[in-house]
User: Fold this.
Amino acid sequence: MAGSVEDGELNNGKLLNLKPSKGQKKRVALLLALAEERDILLLDEWAADQDPHFRRDFYQVLLPLMQQMGKTIFAISHDDHYFTHAERLLEMRNGLLTELVGDERAQASRDAVSRTA
Assistant:
């Protein structure tokens, strides 16, 4: 019996022609990096292709969990809703990397888009 299952095809209880989404591929890559016990993770806009619930869990649950595991994580993001979860907040502007602290950090956490002007 054949039928459609999301982007794959079910045939006699086997999933064929699976075409995972970009977000699903990123989840698998993260799992592989953790399984390989990598100490440093560079995650460039990792949550951008995730659904809103998983994005929240990524920032509020997974990142702290990985930090507790002793991982060093560089999470590059434009998602200002979650800047408050960062241990340190760095900004790249005109080729210069600077750490945002105090009022600058608070402003960036409120509205990253306004800082790009």
Summary: Residues 52-68 form the longest helix (17 residues). The chain is about 35% helix and 25% strand. Residues 48 and 55 are 8 Å apart (CA to CA).
